TrEMBL record:
The chain crosses the membrane at residues 17-37, 58-80, 86-119, 131-150, 238-257. Keywords: Membrane, Transmembrane, Transmembrane helix. It comes from the Bacteria. This is O-antigen polymerase. It comes from Marinobacter similis.
Length: 259
């Protein structure tokens, strides 16, 4: 995560900007989840069973919050104190747990792998960053267990004081299945897509915004457990959507650009 030459200052400032932005995003998301913003602004909408964040979408909110975790770890190599790191990780891990997105599973695995690699084989600054990333991932995992319990107690107390009841069941990530049938069905459709489409479609895609058409037109997947059409206007896997809409060339371009 250390950057040689003149780019280091640029990456440092970029990480600070990302950190401050995601920190504000996390706080706003929590205020929305607990109804504080709605109360003062007279808004009617609520998050429901999962924290949806300022984006109003749990998966996108989860990805944004992980940018904050990574930015904190990056700044650990530039003198950010351990106390501030822990405070930031806690602020990010709480909404991550309340969003209950299964994206946390691959993100945690990537953070552990990258953090462990940097901690063992990196330079002095990279070891600090790797150690910080490992701590951040560990705190997110701990938060997945503790935060829903504490949060549910707070919400129950608030509802009891206001003589209100929830019209929804709050969800914990630990209570959700790792995968579900619609996602597996969509993945099987994409696998069949490779065998049935022309090479030009595979290389250049179906066209921007056409994932919904692809999902509707693709053959229904019939297996022992997964029998539904599972038609979605968008994919819950960003990279599979890029592959379908922009093709293999578009997917490679996005991977190279974001790496």
């Amino acid at each position: 995560m250390s950057v040689p030459g003149g780019r280091e200052d640029y990456c440092l400032e970029l990480s600070k900007a990302a950190l401050y932005g995601v920190l504000a995003f996390a706080i706003i998301s929590l205020l929305l989840y607990y109804g504080i913003v709605q109360r003062f602004l007279g808004l009617e909408f609520a998050d429901g069973s999962r924290l949806r964040g300022a984006w109003r979408q749990p998966n996108l909110t989860t990805t944004t919050l992980w940018f904050g975790v990574v930015a904190t770890a990056f700044l650990a190599g530039s003198g950010l104190s351990k106390k501030k790191q822990l405070m930031l990780f806690v602020v990010f891990s709480v909404p991550l747990a309340l969003a209950a997105s299964r994206l946390n599973y691959p993100y945690i695995c990537l953070a552990l792998l990258l953090g462990g690699f940097m901690f063992r084989l990196g330079t002095e600054n990279q070891r600090k960053q790797g150690h910080s990333l490992l701590i951040g991932a560990a705190l997110v995992m701990i938060s997945m267990v503790i935060t829903p319990i504490i949060s549910n107690s707070l919400i129950d107390y608030k509802n009891a004081a206001a003589s209100q009841t929830d019209s929804y069941d709050r969800v914990s990530l630990l209570e959700r299945e790792v995968v579900d049938s619609p996602r597996i069905s969509e993945s099987l459709k994409i696998y069949n897509h490779l065998k049935s489409r022309k090479i030009s479609h595979i290389m250049f895609g179906e066209g921007v915004g056409r994932y919904g058409f692809f999902s509707f037109e693709a053959p229904v997947i019939h297996t022992e457990y997964f029998k539904e059409q599972s038609t979605w206007l968008h994919s819950h896997n960003l990279y599979s959507m890029i592959f379908v809409e922009l093709g293999l060339i578009g997917l490679v371009f996005v991977l190279v650009a974001t790496s």
